[in-house]
What we know:
The structure holds 2 protein chains of 2 kinds.
Chain A: H1 3-17, H2 21-24, E1 39-46, E2 55-57, H3 61-66, E3 77-79, E4 84-87, H4 91-98, E5 102-109, H5 117-126, H6 138-146, E6 157-160, E7 176-178, H7 181-188, H8 191-199, H9 208-229, H10 244-257, E8 264-270, H11 278-302, E9 309-315, E10 335-341, E11 348-349, E12 368-369, H12 370-381, H13 386-390
Parallel strand pairs in A: 1-8, 1-9, 5-11, 5-12, 6-7, 6-8
Antiparallel strand pairs in A: 2-4, 3-4, 5-10, 9-10
Chain B: H1 12-23, H2 29-35, H3 40-49, H4 66-71, H5 75-102, H6 106-118, H7 126-139, H8 144-152, H9 155-160, H10 174-184, H11 192-201, E1 205-207, E2 213-215, E3 225-227, E4 230-232, H12 236-245, H13 247-261, H14 268-280, H15 285-294, H16 311-322, E5 325-326, H17 329-339, H18 361-376, E6 379-380, E7 403-406, H19 410-415, H20 424-432, H21 455-466
Antiparallel strand pairs in B: 1-2, 3-4, 5-7, 6-7
Amino acid sequence: xxxxxxxxxxxxASASVLVPDFLKAFGNRMIxxxxxxxxxxxxxxxxxxxxxxxxxxxxxxxxxKARPQLGLKKEELIVLNSxxxxxxxxxxLADLYHxxxxxxxNSVGYPNPNRSHFRSTDIWQSAYDExxxxxxxxxxxxxxxxxxxxxxxxxxxVEIDDTLSLALKGNKMKGLAFRKPETFKQVSQNPVLRxxxxxxxxxxxxxxxxxxxxxxxxxxxxxxDYIYDHxxxxxxxxxxxxxxxxxxxxxxxxxxxSGSETKVYYISLSGFDxxxxxxxxxxxxxxxxxxxxxxFCADLTDANRFSETxxxxxxEFGRRVEQNASKGTDHGTANNVFIAGGKLAQAGLLNxxxxxxxxxxxxxxxxxxxxxxxxxxxxxxxxxxxxKILNGNFSSLNFI
Amino acid sequence: MVFxxxxxxxxxxxxxxxxxxxxxxGETPDKVQAMQGTSIPDLTSQLFTSSEQYKDLLYLxxxxxxxxxxxxxSPFLILKMILKSKQDMEELNGQWIFKMVHTRAVLRxxxxxxxxxxxxxxxxxxxxxxxxxxxxRKLALGNFGELLLAMAKDPAMLLxxxxxxxxxxxxxxxxxxxxxxxxxxxxxxxxxKDVREAARAFTGWTVNARGEYEFQxxxxxxxxxxxxxxxGNFNGEDILHILxxxxxxxxxxxxxxxxxxxxxxxxxxxxxKLAADYFHSGYNTEALLRxxxxxxxxxxxxxxxxxxxxxxxxxxxxxxxxxxQFKKEKTLLDLQKALGQVLFFPPNVAGWKxxxxxxxxxxxxxRLSLPQYLVQGLALELQSRPAFEAPPxxxxxxxxxxxxxxxxxxxxxxxxxxxxxxxxxxxxxxxFIQCNPQFMNKESFSVQGxxxxxxxxxxxxxxxxxxxxxxxxx
Lengths: 400, 474
């Protein structure tokens, strides 16, 4: 036995001592059999990323007329084809594009677009219609749906953050949020809590709340141990940007390449609310995103995991077509999303560039419902029925 | 019942703790001990008496000067107020927490907190949020109909639910829908047509540039409306009256109050009885609460220690028990955020869902680790999500310098100093664990070499018992 394996086994062995019997009974059933090794990574660009300055229609006069100072000239772009160019800070995306590992979907949105950050984030995270109160998230409901054939553990969906987003909260099941596997494990090492969880037996008959707390606690420890054990088998040799987003994406790479059974990862990058002096600000954050993506995809390729990974990048809304008086842009509606992966069925620009002629109050009109993108992942990637999770029928697309 | 809950005799001490945890924000062991000689009915009466006197939240001054007040706020001034509002609201948040910790009118304050969740509102005008908060406090124990009307005319509420856009030529149904779905009947007890007709009745209810409710008759739809089987030239007040005539409104409210004050698992026969009384009393909320708090079943074992404490209640509890403080006020807000409930910032118009929805792996671990942070004076490394409008972060791993949590455990430890070491675990259980402890392992919070006369050892035992999941149950 190699030393690394020995360390793993002994860690598992010692952890299992502390696992209450009622959880042991679940055994390995917790991740449904028949699942595959496919992984979805969701990246949320928070604040409303200006997609029009990411994928630029450099032959469109309306674009330059609407953005006299903000419009990016052809020389400033990485040209993709005869119409579109990528913001030069998105170098990693351009590489992926040329390798057939990137799909760009334009004009993605939803009916009756809401221009509030909070509301639109809730809509994207819940996948509910604009007029419904968001009480759970789409990834959380994906976890719920797995409960029919033996429940998943919290680490089936992981968010790298201090708090868990609505997206990962289901009605029965919730994902797991942490910043660093080692800190999370360390906090969970509190012997008082460990003892309490180990001593617990499910018999608070008249007290479902006590049951729920203790069950969650026991699962948390299992997941904290599991994640810790699966965070260090693979060590990244790539250079990530010295920015917390880079560090977090590196954590995800190490978990994936260490073979964690996590199905969905969620991570956010903020700084996209560019009402004034947009250019420098947006370019800086895009570069962080792109550099981190470059290292991330290299890690996945290294460990032979890229063909089983899909990375979805979205923002809660795009921005107004016309620039404002402060060399920035205001909140808009439909936007582009990026799908990266080692094995896409369709790559490149999947649909037409946004129609800048026909606008609704100065904003783009969506052509693709974002829930079609979710449905595609649920159906073709995670192998589950999207209708139940999305509360409606959204036709799948063909990018995977 | 299999485990014989019914056989357990609930001690007077536990009943007092129960009463104060539910009707207020809990009390410290010394105060609970001092109340032991008073009967439960007397203590309940005192709760109502001490809630007669109360003070408004008067932190923010009226934002307009006399000239602006005459002319109304200009768009520029409104923008300025919006930009400053977040900071104001964060300060207001701290003021309200302070009030929850220190007020004598705990019953009124707790109910104000309940109504804040029922009429969940969040607008970027901090002064209007303060106005609404004072209205909720003033009418908390009164007649629900009066509170409902006040909220329907509350400027923050009207702005939050877009009723300033509700005009006869272009109705906006947002307020009308939520009045029925969330404030009175509950979903499924009205039709889409009822929503449309009610929206017509509320046309012209708006907020003027001085931040006051105003009825603009030129935008009001004077036509005949058909609403919940009635027909007439209804205005907004009529709609609210009709909603109060529906027994379902009483049932809906009583269920919500029961879940919060008694048990998240309801007993239908009890709801029916309470709802009938509430309805016939003309929605007298004070009478409803008296009935609940003075009933024998309120103190049944099955209703004690079965509710998951909310983040705000937990924060107030730590402040009351060990005077939790933070060097930076913002940490108090970050803590609420990380726990999932920030006063004045409900997630949406439906408010916080509460109960098991408070708990995920991450938030639970934070709740249970909190006493250890406090007792060791460790920094709470909470990195709240950056605000949407925040500029992109610098190239650093972290930008928040950790701020140690401050607390004072001495007074609490002093209370237990005369206990024998053998009896200390029992005594701690009695004071801090409300649910049936018969299945809990007392070893799990033991301290090596526990010595009741050593302050340090008692403090560690206190922190340990507060780390148990059962401490989260009130």
